[in-house]
Design a protein that fits this description.
The protein is α+β, with helices and mostly antiparallel strands. The chain has 2 helices and 4 strands; from the N terminus they run βαβαββ.
Amino acid sequence: MESTKLLDAKGLACPMPIIKTKKAIGELEPGQVIEVHTTDKGAINDLTAWAKSGGHELLKYEDENGVLKFWIKKGWKIKGTK
């Protein structure tokens, strides 16, 4: 899957993968995709919930030899919302 940005968060424990993802996705335009690599098993639930609550779309998730890979499409922020 094609992505605009790759974030390597391997070796980081919760909540760092989410913090780094939030910062990195802020640099993207709506509709662009960030690919996140992490080894934190908690990221499966954490990134899924974070993406949904932030108005982003989790396009795909896979586990490749212990490296969790997520593709998240940046949502369209509505003016006046967080």
